[in-house]
Amino acid sequence: MAILKPILYILVYPGLIFLMVYSTFCEWFDRKLYARMQNRIGPLHTGRSGILQPVADIIKLFAKEDIVPEKADKGMFTALPVFALAIVCTAALYLPVWHYTEAASFISFPGDLIIVVYLLSLPTLIFFLAGWHSTNYFSAIGGVRVLTMLFGYEIPLLLALLSPAVLAGSWRLVEIAAFYQNHPLLMLVNVIGFFIAVIALQAKLERVPFDIPHAETEIVGGQFTEYSGKKLAFFRLLGDIEMVVGAGLISAVFLGGFPGGLLPGLAWFILKTLFIIFLLSVLRAATSRIRIDQMISFSWRWLAPLGVLQLFIVIIIKGNMS
Amino acid sequence: MIERLVHWSRVKSPWVLHLNAGGGCNGCDIEILAALMPRFDLERFGVQLKGTPRHADVMLCTGAITLQNRDRVLRIYEQVPEPKFVVAAGACAMAGCVYRGSYHTLVGIDQLLPVNAYVPGCPFRPAALIDAVVKLLNSVK
Amino acid sequence: MEYKVSLGPQHPALHEAVSIRMTLDGEVIRDADLKLGYSHRGIEKLAEERSYVQNIYLTERICGICSHSHTTCFTQGVEQLMELVPARRGLYIRTLIAELERVHSHLLWLGVAGQEAGFESFFMYTWRDREVVMDILEWISGNRVHYAMNIFGGVRRDIDELQKKKILDSLGLLKQRTDYYLNLAASEPTFIGRLAGVGMLSKEQAVALCAVGPTLRASGVPMDVRKDDPYAVYAEIPFEVCTADSCDVLGRAVVRVKELIQSYNMIEYLLKNLPEGPFKVKAPRKVKPNEVYSRYEAPRGENVHYIKSNGSDKPERLKVRAPTLANYPATIAMLKSGFIADIPLIFAAIDPCICCAERLVQMDNAYSGESRVLTFSQLRAMANERSTKVNTKKKDIAWPF
Amino acid sequence: MNNEAIIEKINAELKDKVQEAVAAAPRRINVKVDRKHLLAVLTFIKDQFRMSHLATITGVDLGEHFEVIYHLSNDAVTINVRILTPRLEPKIPSVCALIPGAILYERELQDMLGLVVENIPDPRRLLLCDDWPEGQYPLRKDWKFERPAEIIPGGK
Fold first, then answer.
1. What does the domain layout of chain A look like in residue ranges?
2. Is the complex ipTM more than 0.85?
3. H-helix segments, chain A
4. Scanning A36, A165, A253, A306, which has the fewest C-beta atoms within 10 Å of its C-beta?
5. Is residue D9 part of a domain?
């Protein structure tokens, strides 16, 4: 019987099924919001007001012919998307949702914040490998850009995520969330960190203004130029799930997690992640794409110093708090 | 059941690759872009303009094919994955329009590729393009 | 490491098929070469087999965005050959359509520049407002793109009072939207940062390479055919040539938005004092042997038609030179020191109307890059040279971050 | 600088080189020149009247001669410099040294009319497709071509 519970966690609630359904819903939410902000209607005719549009996209891609360029390394070319999807789904397990127990167990232990951040940065390396392996000049240059951008946003993201953990005095996601549930006022201390994390998440997901690697008008499809059919479907799912997991991580650390058992926890999870995805959509609609060197100078001249400032404030407050 | 589901998904999310085959004015290309704009908004039908042939399944060709562009059009046609459709948009793509009899252009897309749908008009109105895309999808077996 | 890459005819940034062959060093473009010839439809050969009236239909389909400019240039040339004085009201309506086409072409360009810079929302907004102008043109001429308004001796259709009133009110909306775009283009940091300092073309280069239109006027040269060689009724309309001297893509955007505002005032002036009387005059079929060189200021630059007649009803020779072809040598000069990310922007800056220039290009295998073997010292020299260049550029960009 | 003043200046300075200069229409001047003096006349016009903008170069097939017209313009007037080359040895000097922007127009002349432009910096083909047969120049009057058979899909 004890086996059933973990299988239930992995497969159903914070696991695959929930993630797939919720991430397609988030993609619809994001596309609809982006379209409405551009005075357009957005997907309308698939399901009620277009809600099944991402589902239709993915099923169609699964049913399409799958072309592998003959110069590409066959094994690696097919393994990469599946591998990336697996990584992001395991990262989702660490979010402090319903199945978290107080006692330290395999799923929640002091230091799982670092694990989640590490798991979220692995897909970026996989994007680079995907770009490199599809032997197309545009995707090679897309892959190289993915790595150069990694150096831009990774450090500020870490700094931003660690400052609330330092204030809460622990690296366990569930304790951080519990700390902020008890002292909601302290959440305001991390406002700067929150915005840095949102901007860095936008860069990690490669959305405008940071969609340099697969900039449509410059290098065609970036690292996904050669991908089609099932592999492309995996990459699109990967993008959605990564958005959900990133938003869940930021809301767990900054907005005080998801109190209550199964149902209230789920309601809080959906509410907070949709709020963060709303912020990402506004950012996507309001800005234009910046160049790779401008992106690096922006993150090192503004995001990193702000992250250090945020850490400094947290240390001062922790000093006179204890 | 799976067959019906796959058919539904193909009808509901046609990704479009816009290919200018050369021998035409860009009136039709601008009308295709106008069809994606807030007023006509093709995204209501799930249509998205894709850059690479790999991602697309409907090939929207405009302009009569020039001799220089001939084998490029063929190569791009082969790059599009299998369940693909070709739409000849505009009078030039249908039958060469005003450039019939020119020494440097073929008379229309169907001289080279099997065409599934024709969109008349020089240039066609965005509404005509939407009507063509929807009719093409419904006729897909 | 040098890469040779071709940005082929099938590329999302280029709505038509044109290709640039570049040797790249990392992200910086060392050398660019335009391979043209894809959209060559042999229009000049076709024109020799058609009568003058059929040629109006042909010259209209040279370009989809500036179709009225080619027909006007052709008809006013043939009217000079026929020594035929067109009806004054016809000339006024012809100039009105010319300015309306300039408005819709510049709005189109603003949207495309926004899309190249990755600013999708700006693209959507400008094109939504462009629909207002397309509706006006449809009221007058019945078709959104090819208006077929010109005939020798005047215009095919008249404008009645109701249409005049409708045009004037929708002009109000357009003016308000253009002011919004003017201060948006001047204030949005990511947009300015993306456009400033890109595609530099100094004044001497622009003049030496015979650039035309907004590309030339953005480098500070006030050359505008409507002022220098006034045709139709431009001699009577009060307007001034808009120039900027920042010599980059941002300057070209500013010149085009200023021209939009000029066009609105011109349209108002034209509508207010539209003369009474007939709007077209009977024209002979045959033309005496003669030749004419007619010029026209298309939205993209100076448009030139050379027509030679031999007494029959078919022209002996029709030479069309569209503005985009004149701007190609300037584009190669601009591409020389840009980044890869700048290519679509620089290319969109001259607002290429490829089919206009009857020239187009192809793409080989994108990965055919043959690279030179570089000694390590060469590599380091190239890296230092590039880093020094990048720093200087950063100072003068108004990029706040 | 209206038309008459320009014409006197041209006749005065370049008496031997210019065969005739006439004002064809308001703001249009035609200057007939011999092939050998082309560069000298162009440099004179470019410096004297600040005519640095070469709009285009037109080639016309007159039967036994080719006429090549250089359209130069500044902010006031347009001067068309015209030269004649016999059909049998169609050689013209290149003006790219004087006006760098003329490169594309000269390549087009080579493609379309088969004129040979001496010391042109970039003699590659501009317009026609790569597999275009040599020696075929579409804009010549005597050039005929047969239209390819049309394939009617559906086999009727």
1. 4-321
2. no
3. 4-11, 16-37, 53-62, 74-93, 112-133, 137-168, 173-182, 191-204, 230-254, 262-286, 292-298, 304-321
4. A36
5. yes
Neighbours of C257 (CB within 10 A): 21
D79 forms beta bridges with D29, D72
Q: List helix spans (H) across D14-77.
A: 38-48
The answer to whether D125 faces chain B, any CB pair under 8 Å, is no
Alpha helix positions (H), D35-119: 38-48, 103-113
What parts of chain B have a pLDDT lower than 50?
none
Q: CB of B51 within 8 Å of any CB in chain D?
A: no
pLDDT exceeds cutoff 50 at C364: no
Contact assessment for residue C346 and residue C32, using Cβ atoms and an 8 Å cutoff = no
Q: Whole domain around residue D30: which residue ranges?
A: 3-95
Is B55 in a helix, a strand, or coil? Answer: helix
* pTM confidence score: 0.83
Number of domain units in chain D: 1
Distance between alpha carbon A153 and the CA centroid of its chain, in Å? 13
Looking at the predicted structure, is the pLDDT value of residue C382 above 50?
no
CATH number, domain at D78?
3.30.460.80
Q: Is the pLDDT of residue C397 over 70?
A: no
Distance from the B28 Cα atom to the nearest Cα atom in chain A, whole angstroms: 20
Residue of chain C whose alpha carbon sits nearest to that of A296 = C401
Q: Decide if B57 and A44 are in contact by the 8 Å CB cutoff.
A: no
| Residues whose CB is less than 8 angstroms from the CB of residue C150 and which lie 6 or more positions away in sequence, other chains included | C56, C68, C71, C72, C74, C75, C94, C156
- Token couple for C331: 């584009």
Q: Residue C267 — pLDDT band, cuts 50, 70, 90? A: very high
The residue written with tokens 């660490």 in the block is A94
pLDDT over threshold 60, residue C357: no
| A56–B8 CB contact, under 8 Å | yes
SS3 B87: strand
Cβ–Cβ gap B43/A41 under 8 Å: yes
Collapse the DSSP code of C304 into the 3-class scheme (helix H, G, I; strand E, B; otherwise coil) and give the result: strand
| Cβ contacts of A279 within 8 Å, gap of 6 or more | A198
- Determine, for residues B81 and A53 on separate chains, whether the beta-carbon distance falls below 8 Å: no
Only one residue has tokens 């697969």, namely A214
Contacts of C366 in chain A (CB under 8 A): 136-138
Take residue A176 and report the two structure tokens written for it. Answer: 């951080």
- In order of their start, the domains of chain C are 1-40+327-354 (3.30.390.50), 43-321 (1.10.645.10), 355-391 (no CATH)
CB contact under 8 A, D58 and C319: yes
How far off is chain C from A292, nearest CA to CA, in Å? 8
Task: Point out which residues pair with C306 in neighbouring strands.
Answer: C293, C319
> CA A189, CA A313: separation in Å to the nearest integer?
8
User: Phi-psi category of A136—alpha, beta or left, where left has phi over 0 and alpha has psi -120 to 50?
Assistant: beta
* Confidence band for A279, pLDDT divided at 50, 70 and 90: very high
Across the interface, whether the CB atoms of A137 and C343 are under 8 A apart is answered no
Nearest Cβ partner for B26 among C43, C144, C353? C353
Identify the pLDDT of residue B105. Answer: 83
Q: What pLDDT is recorded for position C393?
A: 36
